[in-house]
UniProtKB/TrEMBL annotation:
CDD domains: 17beta-HSD-like_SDR_c (cd05374). PANTHER family: SHORT CHAIN DEHYDROGENASE, SHORT-CHAIN DEHYDROGENASE_REDUCTASE FAMILY PROTEIN. Residues 7-175 form the Ketoreductase domain. It comes from Asanoa ferruginea. It comes from the Bacteria. The keyword Lyase does not apply. This is Short-subunit dehydrogenase. SMART domains: PKS_KR. The keyword Oxidoreductase applies. Pfam families: adh_short. Transmembrane segments: none annotated. One of its GO terms (molecular function) is oxidoreductase activity. Belongs to the short-chain dehydrogenases/reductases (SDR) family. Keywords: Oxidoreductase.
Length: 280
């Protein structure tokens, strides 16, 4: 869609962090923004600042039935949904042995099954409209993982894999963007957003530093407002990427991981190729 055309946005997790920054930037440009949140009154100030352009809807994305209903409600009210931003999420820190089944399942409901349900529900509306965009807010943790971030990264890896397939199977004008931010000054590490599993002493040396890392909340170098502007710039680009890394740390760390993986692939390539049936 051209940069000077107005859009209708549905943004989950719109009360804080990237969701709030994206909602603010889109509304400031004159677009209509429907902010989805569990606590809608946290959007009152944004709605007041942009009368008639910002609207709140109650949604817990782990309720997949409600996800489908909200998409239909928004499309019926505004005639279309041009951009869906799957942003709602939280931090989860814990070694696998420390992470309970309930913690793991909830995180997948929040980061994977909810976005999958919203994307599934919006596709018929975008097909009818002849196009649209789905933005999946992933993370550098969707490209690589580290001690204590296994559960978190697993959900983001899953979302990225699903989106790679979507880009290839959806051929009616819908674009997909996976955003992989590095360290940004959002509330993700804050006490109301970060969740830490019950620690086990066996993992003090490996996961302990990751728990301490949460204490850096408020000192991250990334600016969410600039991230939002970068995302909108990509949406206006004639040939947008599938993935957008955000932050110098993201570019450098993802680049290093890709180089390491490429080198490892090459090192073992002969053995990998030698597994074919003889004569095939």
């Amino acid at each position: 869609m051209a940069g000077n055309a107005t859009r209708v946005w549905l943004v989950t997790g719109a009360t804080s962090g990237f969701g709030r920054a994206i909602a603010e930037e889109a509304a400031a440009r004159g677009d209509t923004v429907v902010g989805a949140a569990r606590t809608t009154d946290r959007l009152d100030d944004l709605a007041a600042a942009h009368p008639g352009r910002v609207h709140a809807v109650a949604l817990d994305v782990t309720d997949t039935t409600r996800c489908a209903a909200v998409v239909d409600e928004v499309a019926d009210r505004f005639g279309r949904i041009d951009v869906l931003v799957n942003n709602a999420g939280r931090t989860q820190v814990g070694a696998l042995e420390e992470t309970t089944d309930d913690e793991l399942r909830y995180l997948f409901e929040l980061h994977f099954f909810g976005p999958a349900a919203l994307t599934r529900a919006v596709l018929p509306h975008m097909r009818h409209a002849g196009g649209g965009t789905v933005v999946q807010m992933s993370s550098v943790g969707g490209k690589y993982s580290g001690p204590g971030f296994g559960a978190y990264s697993a959900t983001k890896f899953a979302l990225e894999g699903l989106t790679e397939a979507l880009r290839q199977e959806v051929d009616f004008g819908v674009r997909f963007l996976i955003v992989e931010p590095g360290s940004f000054r959002t509330g993700l590490f804050g006490p109301d957003a970060a969740y830490v599993s019950e620690p086990h002493p066996a993992y003090a040396a490996t996961v302990g530093p990751t728990r301490e890392y949460l204490g850096t909340h408020g000192s991250q170098p990334g600016d969410p407002a600039k991230a939002a502007r970068a995302i909108l710039a990509v949406l206006d680009a004639p040939d947008p990427p599938l993935r957008l890394a955000l932050g110098a740390d993201a570019v450098e760390s993802i680049g290093a991981v890709l180089a390491e993986q490429t080198a490892e692939l090459a090192k073992w390539a002969d053995l990998s190729r030698a597994t074919a049936i003889d004569g095939s």
